[in-house]
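Before going further, learn to read the protein records used in this course. Taken together, the tokens spell out the fold as the letters spell out the chain. A record is reproduced here so that you can trace the correspondence yourselves:

***
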Amino acid sequence: MHIAQEKLLKLLDTQNVSGLTLRQIGGKIGETGSPQKIKHHLDQLAKRGLIKIDRQNNTIEKTRGGLSAENNLVSLPIVGSANCGEATYFADGYAEGYLKASKTVLGDLVDKINNLFVLRAVGSSMNRAYIDEDTIEDGDFVIVDKTEKQLRNGEYVVSIIDGVANIKKLFLDDKNQRVVLVSESNEDLPPIYIHQDDLDSYFIAGRVVKVMKQPDELADFRNAAMADALKGLGDISKEEYDYYENLCLPKEK
């Protein structure tokens, strides 16, 4: 997340900026340049579902998770990424956005919305795993029930090892007194072995309960939209240009 967006979220925690101009909002976070930059960052926060902008009533407020009484949509916090291969992506628990879904899409999970969080899957080492007939592929959203942390044989879990999140299938090897975390993939990836005496460094963040597939066309659409947004930002520093340009670059699959 861009530092300006972090500043805007912190500002909204303490102040009501509704009715202020873009220039006034920028001044409160130390950004005195182009108001279009502030508009861009506010729009990005809104697209992520972190804030709500009502242009008709000129209000801006932070989004809260849970069920919306207005449109019957459920907002689940996206807290980061989980690697499906080597453990390289941290899940720090900080909501970087909200995944919105209707009650019918979530089904019985609606009754547990306060116990659910979302991770983006990174990597392809679980592309032969099936959660209700859906595989876990790079870029998919994985819904996790944080209350289900027991060691149960054959479950798909989000495990935390040395502070790093992984999505794996869990097996209990009672004979050798160890837990085995397995990738289910068309790649030849080795399991992770954890002896029962070393479980203090191992933590289950929850059980994977649903996979939300992301259409391939969506990434192309987002890249085109970001390229259009870049044109209207005016004069910016090289650091800012690199940031915005990276948003527009096509993502490798």
